[in-house]
């Protein structure tokens, strides 16, 4: 049976769509969508996957792993070298929560809007 659905887009809530899109563009190499503006910005991968960022008034960033402000979304990215990727992403504006449950297998970081994401080895 062929798949019923095909993932074409992922959209994250945030306070500043353009700033969050800039972070992910530098981190992933996705291309900025020409229709991006201050309320909704997007990035497109070569195969068409769209990553969107929408402005939400009163946005409250997740405080992972605090369940009172849950993670709201979760992205996983594979990398060749955890330490190198973490260093570059921190320079780009990512954060590193104190709680790290993955040991040497994965790292949890947060984007500039507070969304947690994981880096895992290829």
Describe what this molecule looks like in 3D.
This protein is an alpha/beta fold and 122 residues long. Helix content is 19%, strand content 29%. A four-stranded mixed sheet has the order 1-4-3-2, with helices on one face. A hairpin with a 5-residue loop joins strand 6 (106-110) and strand 7. The mean pLDDT is 91.
Question: Which labels suit this protein?
Answer:
29% strand, globular, 122 residues, alpha/beta, 4-stranded mixed beta sheet
How do the helices and strands line up, and which of them pair or pack?
Layout lengths: L8 E6 L2 H12 L2 E2 L7 E5 L5 E6 L19 E5 L2 H11 L13 E5 L5 E6 L1
Percent range for β-strand residues: 25-35%
**Ends apart, CA distance between termini:** 29 Å
Question: What low-confidence regions span 5 or more consecutive residues with pLDDT below 50?
Answer: none
Percentage of residues in helical conformation = 10-25%
The helix-strand sequence is EHEEEEHEE
Total DSSP E strands: 7
Determine the number of helices (DSSP H or I, runs of at least 4 residues). 2
Average pLDDT level? 91
Globular, elongated, flat, extended or rod-shaped: what is the shape? Answer: globular
How is the main sheet built?
A: 4 strands, mixed
Radius of gyration: 15 Å
Give the helix/strand class: alpha/beta
Question: How do the strands of the widest beta sheet line up side by side?
Answer: 1-4-3-2
